[in-house]
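Entry:
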Amino acid sequence: MLNWWRRSTARLFLVGLLALTGCAGSARKTACERPFVFGEDTLAYRNDLVWVYYRDAASGEFKHRNRESRPDYTHHCFVVARSVRQFFQHARFDPSLPPADEATYRKLIRQVATTSPRRELPPEKRIVLPGYTNLFQFSQAHAAELKAESGGAWQSYFQRGHWRMVLPFSRSHQAAQVTQWLDSIRRHRPPVVHLVRFPQLTINHSVLLFDARETETEVRFSTYDPYFSSHPVELVYHRVERRFYFDGNDYFVGGWVNGYEVYSSWNY
């Protein structure tokens, strides 16, 4: 009985250890045939904000107030970043084919959205969207269908990897993430990253990394931020501090952040 209890405890410990490490070593490393291109593989619309954020002139604090008119598409940052990656990995646009009707496009979008972002379909099995050259062009014409079928805002709140943000982030962990992300970018597999400052709630956001420039002192990641559809933004890793810096913008005051990749394994 004692030996059985010891074996069972060991198995539970192993399962817990695998959950904490994310089974990073078990992922099959593949490469996409081309790099991710901002303005072609991104969406023409953005994930908007419910509040307007601003720095109070008297106190210097970062505050917020309600918008005069509520945007119709908010709290979808994880959905947008994930969807962009899914279209990059699972879809193929063919402008030589005639455009389809709305019902057909909705069905095709659902097929893309329900294919795991942790997978990559080979070119011959990718979902073909007719009548358009790329996702950006398609999203200009069919934003309503994409917003309706890509996933609800609740999927940003209940993303399976959110458990990780409550654990401490060591500097060695952040350095390992940089190595992992650079490898993914070189293989044309843009990582989706969760940016946090937990237990502070000043940022809880998702971006997609698609390029990087390295120097002796830093790595400057080019990112697709779901809030900014018109231009990339930068996430900067400082090698000495082994920390990430994210500039201030409409929703974040700016400063040091922690980051980890999501949609990368069974528990992320």
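The first strand starts at residue 51 and ends at 55.
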